[in-house]
Input
Amino acid sequence: MDKKWWKNAVVYQIYPRSFQDSNGDGVGDIQGIIQRLDYLEQLGINVIWLSPVYESPNDDNGYDISDYYAIMDEFGTMEDMDRLIVEAKKRSIHLVMDLVVNHTSDEHAWFIEAKKSKQNPYREYYIWRDPRDGGVPNGLGSVFSGSAWEYDEETDQYFMHLFSKRQPDLNWENKQMRYEIYDMMNFWLEKGIGGFRLDVIELVGKLPDREITAHGPQLHEYLQEMNRETFGKYDVMTVGETNSATPQQAKLFSGAERNELSMVFQFEHMVLDQQPGKSKWDLRPLSVVELKQVLSTWQMELQNEGWNSLFWNNHDQPRIVSRWGNDQKYRVESAKMFAILLHMMKGTPYIYQGEEIGMTNIVLTDISQADDVETKNMYQERLAEGYSEEAILAAINTKGRDNARTPMQWDDSKEAGFTTGHPWLPVNPNYTTINVEKALTDQDSIFYCYQKLIQLRKVNPIMVYGNYQLLAEEDASLFAYTRTFQGETWLIVANFSEQVNEVQFTEVATDLEPIISNSTTHKRYDLQQLRLAPYETFVVKLDSSLYVK
Ligand code: GLC
Ligand code: CA
Output
């Protein structure tokens, strides 16, 4: 298999607004990130994915960009940004920028021009359609509720927005627009960045008139063109956000011969707790069997072709320990289980800020405490549809994006060491017990489990290149698999439940020292006689392959 530096990498995602404030205005900033680089070096990561820091009116917290060549005032200056790239490089950390090019802000100069008239040279940079029967051009909906079409009185046409109405979609059929984007990407590449995370990239080949949004017929053509004109000339990593990609499609994006992207984020595992065919707010319990099946399918399908990215969390998802673990009694155990399960799989692991100390969801008691545009739109929509306020809030507290966006918890001082001022979003009240300072003084903390996993990956090619095989497929609480590389096999076993689990393997291996585990009692493992505590997880090296009874 193709060797690439990013296959050995572990990525840490920073949501700058919530990471570290350096000047007391309550908003995280680039200087704050620079101050915390030593911490990231200690954790051991070698890539930062930085959520957008470009100029933006913040309708969607930076995912609505008004100038790709400028840094948001609140975050700092271009000098700060250049400094961050240099300081990260000193610590062997690549900086991956977020590339949001499916849409811009409605305050981007192109859109301000485009709105002026149908004849404006920038008109075609966006997607405009005439009204139909006095209303919207068609039934396309926005991800953030309501129609994807917004009426512009001045020119009597609708423009398209798959996200908020302040995020008009760019028209990728327009070649001039595409090449302006490529120029901008080259501007950043020349600064020495480590690559791009491409926001909702599966949408750029859309065919609005046929109501096709994801995976349109020209999508891969555009990506090959982009690769050729920009990052293909550099040794960087690229990861596309593809919310609906199947493994087949992922191979098109990430196949080595395809000259498109390094890898994509797939979300099939992230929808397992929502009702099929419904929205993310319509909840159902997770089935561990389904989770194993989905993740294993991705592992197997991309075993020899393409490359997986591995994640439980990002700035759009609730905290995994609250979502599918136990954020009270077994917070530490379950957080470590998620860490080990994920980092032992084949692919590039991503850690979202705070995950490495087991940060949890927050509880909103009133909609006025919400910040996120998706949450607020959904609240209004569902209220109008007759849902009870209680039910809506319950869904928000389970799935809302603000859960991941509360400030990073650094220590137990006021506002968790995030700011000396008033934070833009409240700090989770549990910061006095869950914080970095505390994690660093406790050798058994979640932090050190992540640190160890990252170290292990650096010296064990089996973690990077080994083949994956799921065991005990039908077991409702045991998540077990092997990795095999050059005659060596590792066994990963997790008790994905709150019950004690008795497990037997046919393998005669009675005195194995774990490579890593989350147990404080088991120093060695006997595979013929396992009594696993809630969420107990371990990894051992085997002499041969084995089967579960
Ligand atoms: C992606 C981002 C999300 C944003 C959306 C629109 O899904 O991760 O935060 O709201 O795209 O840019
Ligand atoms: Ca600040």
